[in-house]
Structure formats: structure tokens, C-alpha cells
Amino acid sequence: MFPAQALAEEMLLRGWRVKLSTDARGALYTGGFPHSVEIVVETSATFARGGALAKLLTPFAIMRGVISAAFGMLRDRPDVVAGFGGYPAIPAMTAAWILRRPRMIHEQNGVLGRVNRLFVKKVNQVACGTWPTDLPGGVTAEHTGNPVRATILERESAQYMEPGEYPMSMVVIGGSQGARVLSDVVPGAVALLPDTILRHLRVSHQARPEDLDAVVKRYADAGISVEVEPFFRDLPRRLTESQLVVSRAGASSIADITVIGRPAIFIPLASALRDEQTANARGVVEAGGAYLIPEDELTALGLARHMLSVLQDPAVAITMANASKMQGRPEATEALSMMVEELGTVGLAA
Fold it and tell me: Using CA atoms, how far apart are residues 292 and 313, in angstroms rounded to an integer?
């Protein structure tokens, strides 16, 4: 949702009317969208969830969503339809293809998702957030980067404060799917850090609601100052103030971290079907802006060693922060919006 929100914000500034098409689940995460964005909830589904009956009904749910989206587009005649992947995008993208509206997709990850792979040869333009992205033969794409929200861009110029003998901050973010492993391992890793660091360190840790009490207890048992929440609404501020970020390697998280420019330890989600999170992190890791620990190699001791290498050595931390910053693409939203405007102009001319 974050790249879609960023594009919506920019297109509104450029005088466009913006409508968001999603499903009921996606609509739960639209709170950050500007109020002037019209949100339309269409029926969609995936074969990857639910039991046998749900899978049997999936095609019918998608068909209802496509028909509804098509009627909506016949009324609105959108100049451009931009898809950001995931099964909530299926109805609108299918309707746009049937009605031959100018259309494009944006792929956040270094490996195409299943829905974007379905449409990649059925659109006029392909934008990629991670480079290189694994694309089918014959498909060309533009590397725009991953758009970030305005609240991240506002902090793009914030200077990094290296670790030292003063209050320091570590941010731990895992996303809804990947948070549990971090909740199990990170508190124990932090507890292994020397007292010379712990006396200055505070931790902001995102955890699943059902894990909150257990995570708080793990930190409390080690005497570590921590704030634990399911979601930090002021995450841009916390990233800005941090000396180190421990994160899954989701494309949006990496985009936020690199635009602000902070040292990171990435732990790709092992259950990701195409190992796209490892692909997402590759560029930052190779540039020296982050460490990468595969989930099946994650231990408290190994993670603590990586934490220590950053938090006890200001020179290493500064080098990593600068390398991270060099990988950020704060211009991504502008590049994507220019693609939209160009495609809209071509569509109108046609």
C-alpha cells in the first residue's frame, strides 16, 4: 500500500483525480491515503488462502470483482490504471486489459509477484522498484525505485548520528508475517550486548498483537528499555533517530531505510515463495549499507555480533549509513508519476 499511497499523493499534487481499487482486506490499510482519494472495494480472492470451498469459489469472486471494476471504468474512463501487485489488484487490472485502458504495473520486489507476472505482458509499461528485477524474456522495464510516503521524504536530509556514549536507538520491524521470528530472537540478541552499550540503548520493536506481552517480558527480564507496539505510526521519526535498524527485507521497508540512510541488518522472510526478500536486500548489502542473515542461520549470538559491529564502532556505522543512503531513491515517486503522465498522454492521443 505504501508505494500506491505515495503515487496517489503525488498525482493529486499534479492535479489528477485518483481512485484506489482494492479488496476488503486491503481497505483496512488505507488510513494514510489522502481524503480526496476515492476508495472502491472490489471482490477478489486467492487460491493460496482458505479451505477447499474457498478455493472453489475463488474464480467466481474474482469474476464478480472484474465485472464491477469494468462497469466502473466504463463510467470513469480512467486515463491510466496502475497496478501494484497482489490479488486485490486483479479485478482492476483485468478490467483495464479487457477495456484497453492505458495500464502499467509497478513491482516492488526483485522477483515478480504472481499477479504482476500474470499481467507483465499485458500492460503498456513496467516499473521496477528493485534492480535488477527478474523479468520474463522480451519484457523491458524502467527502474524507478520504490516510492516512499511524504513523511519519509521529509526526513531524507536528516543527518545520521553515529553511536556513542549518549542515548542511542535501535528499531526492529518485521511486518505482519515476519514479526514472530524477530520477536523470538532479537530480545535475546540485544541482551547479549555489553553493558557499555545497553546503558545507552533504547529499542522500538514492532510485534504482532498476540506476541506483545511475551516480547515486553523478554526485554524486561534483561533490563532493557523498550517500546513494543503492533505498529508505530511515527516510524519515520524513529528510523531517523536510530543508530541501527533490524528488519525483514520487504521492499517498502528497504526503501524507507535507504532514503533516510541508516545501517541495517536484514533478515529475509524464509517463507517468501520466490525468495524475493533476499533479492530486495542484495543491492544494499553489496554496497556495504547492511548485513544480511538468512533466517535459517539466525541465532541470538550471531545477530548480537552484527549489532555490536555497528554500535561499538562509529566509523563502521557512518560508512554503512552513507552506503545505505547511496542506495536510496528519493526520486522514485517523481519517476513513477512521470511514467503515469506520459502513459496518460499517449493514451489520450491514441
Answer: 18
CA distances from 66 to 50, 160, 185 (A): 21, 47, 43
Residues 82, 104: Cα–Cα separation, whole Å: 5
Predicted confidence (pLDDT) per residue in 221-240, tens digit? 989 999 999 999 999 999 99
Contacts of 25 (CB under 8 A, 6+ apart): 88
In DSSP notation, 256-268 reads HHHHHT--EEE--
Query: Model-level pTM?
Result: 0.87
Alpha carbon distance 260, 247 (integer Å): 15
As a whole number of angstroms, the longest Cα–Cα distance in the chain is 67
φ, ψ of residue 47 to 5 degrees: the values are -75, -10
End-to-end CA gap in the chain:
30
For cell 505482519, the residue is 176
CA neighbours closer than 13 Å in the CB half-sphere of residue 249:
29
AA letter at 58: T
Instruction: Give the pLDDT score at 348.
Output: 58
Amino acid at 4: A
